[in-house]
């Protein structure tokens, strides 16, 4: 694959991933759609696009997804939607990304991986950044929403770990999105009294599922084989930064000093950890 195409696909995928935060925050802040409805529309739209991508472009018949992974996917999507009721886009993306990486690093340590000095410093720096962000204060994000977003990150970390070696990633992700639909439908029925199907909000949710999730994952999986594992991990550090810039440009969100310092600590610590890790 030509280098320029790899770079282009990677940039598009990172923008799409950041777009999930921006679209969800825009929908829940500027429209009256409820979080459960946003979740099911996002999952259904994502499932449709990924199913089509798998049928048209999949190079392997291996992998169809499974129910446990689908449950983790649903938990991520639901916690994500409810968290963004009150979290700014940048804060939510940073908490999500930090929790995903912490989950995957923690799994590696539990499996017996050893930390070098720089890895230990990087992990301590990243955890310190998350703690700083969540400390009480005027600029601290709402605790309940922050915990929901951390839960979303843990769920996505678990989903990612379960997906390793499961077969063709596009087919597996499509299968898991399809299996997540009944979970999302059950949540919508449970939250029926709070349902509000705002038209603009529905379009945001559909775009989040079809473009930022479905098309974004398909594009990422197209670029991923051409990237080294370390490069693929580090390039994802750009997602919270893109979300922060998008929040400022499109959602009139402000960048606090606490968020700037926490972001530098979390993203810098993770980059330091990954740069010395054999992947």
From TrEMBL:
Bilayer topology: Multi-pass membrane protein
InterPro entries xrefs: AA-Vitamin_Transporters, EamA_dom, EmrE-like
Superkingdom as given in the UniProt entry: Bacteria
SUPFAM superfamilies assigned: Multidrug resistance efflux transporter EmrE
Keyword entries, A-Z: Membrane, Transmembrane, Transmembrane helix
One Pfam family cited in the UniProt record for this chain: EamA
Residue ranges crossing the lipid bilayer per the database entry: 36-54, 66-87, 117-137, 143-161, 173-191, 203-224, 231-251, 257-274
Name of protein: EamA-like transporter family protein
Organism: Paucimonas lemoignei
Lineage: Bacteria, Pseudomonadati, Pseudomonadota, Betaproteobacteria, Burkholderiales
């Amino acid at each position: 694959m030509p280098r320029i195409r790899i770079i282009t696909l990677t940039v598009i995928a990172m923008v799409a991933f950041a777009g999930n935060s921006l679209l969800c925050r825009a929908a829940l802040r500027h429209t009256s759609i409820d979080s459960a409805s946003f979740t099911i529309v996002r999952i259904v739209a994502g499932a449709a696009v990924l199913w089509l991508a798998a049928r048209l472009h999949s190079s392997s018949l291996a992998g169809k997804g499974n129910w446990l992974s689908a449950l983790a996917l649903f938990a991520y999507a639901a916690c994500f939607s409810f968290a963004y009721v009150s979290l700014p886009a940048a804060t939510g993306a940073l908490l999500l990304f930090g929790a995903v990486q912490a989950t995957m690093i923690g799994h590696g340590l539990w499996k017996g991986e050893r930390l070098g000095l720089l890895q230990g410093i990087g992990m301590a720096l990243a955890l310190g950044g998350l703690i700083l962000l969540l400390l009480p204060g005027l600029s601290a994000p709402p605790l309940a929403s922050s915990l929901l977003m951390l839960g979303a990150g843990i769920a996505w970390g678990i989903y990612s770990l379960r997906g390793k070696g499961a077969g063709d990633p596009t087919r597996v992700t499509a299968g898991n999105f399809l299996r997540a639909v009944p979970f999302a439908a059950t949540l919508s029925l449970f939250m029926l009294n709070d349902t509000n199907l705002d038209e603009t909000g529905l379009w945001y949710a559909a775009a989040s599922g079809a473009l930022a999730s479905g098309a974004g994952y398909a594009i990422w999986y197209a670029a991923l084989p051409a990237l080294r594992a370390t490069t693929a991990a580090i390039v994802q550090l750009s997602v919270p930064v893109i979300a922060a810039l998008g929040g400022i440009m499109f959602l009139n969100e402000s960048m606090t000093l606490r968020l700037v310092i926490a972001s530098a600590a979390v993203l810098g610590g993770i980059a330091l950890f990954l740069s010395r890790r054999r992947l």
